[in-house]
Structure formats: C-alpha cells, structure tokens
Amino acid sequence: MDRVDIEVSGGCQCGAVRYHATQMLDNSHLCHCRMCQKAVGGIFAALVAAPDEKLVWTRGEPAVWRSSEHVERGFCANCGTPLFYRDVNNGRTNLTIGSLDNPGDFPPHANSGTENMVGWFQTIPTIEDDGATEADREDWAAAIKASNNQHPDRDTESWNAKPRQ
Length: 165
Hints:
Helices cover 10% and strands 30% of the residues. The protein has 165 residues and is mainly beta. The longest helix is centred in the last third of the chain and has 9 residues, at 138-146.
C-alpha cells in the first residue's frame, strides 16, 4: 500500500473533534460489512487510512467503542459523527471519508465486506435524479441556514460546539 505525503484535516459535524494527518495511504474503499453498516448508519462505510504516527487530534478527543477484539471505532460523543475504524494491530487509522474536509480527494478504489453488500447497491448510478435542490425549497433552506450549527469544512481558531440536548 503506497503512502502519499498529503496534508488532510477533518472532524465531526459539531466541531468538538478535529484531526490532521500529514500522510495518507492509498487504500480508499467502501466497506459493506455488517459492522461498518451499523457503525455509520448507512449501507457502507467509506474509509481511507492514515498511519497512526502521522495522525493527530487537533481539537477534542474522539470517543472510542471496541466493536470486537481487534477493532476500535471512533466517534464524536457530542454529535455522534462516525470518525474512524481502527484495527488495533496494524498501526493505521481508517478515517471516514465523509469526515474529511475534502472528501472528494479520496475516491474509493475497492469494495470490501461484499458478502453484506445490499442487493440494490449496484443500481445506485441508475437512480433517477429528481432535480430537487435547496433552491426549490427556499424557505426551508433559509431556515436551516439561519440555525445551522455545523462546523465549517476547515480548521478554525475556536469553535463552540453546542452540547447535545
């Protein structure tokens, strides 16, 4: 697995937990195993790894849950954002691609855990685009924007994450 010297940052939705990595592995993938599905609440987990020695937590610390003898899963205890999957024996942390500030930089190269891939996964590219945008629902979009508590996709000097209610 190739290492790429690239600086990335990311974090949770509320901004309570942020991270920075100075090197990434060329292993971006979609994991369809049942544990990953449950961990992210979706039909797959999109992951890409950073070597542990190149990853630092720059704000807060993730909560960690041991989903098996070999695996830890990290998330924000405040907003619940899934942040990583880590095999405790291999020296790397697979970050959730969606938690990166620039998720488009890591298109997946492979599917894993395919024994649990949902049957309709392959049909995703054929799903009709209904054309709906936020512009179609201006009042709704304005209300969301006015009350948005989401951290921006960049590091900030400070951020006061609202505690969960």
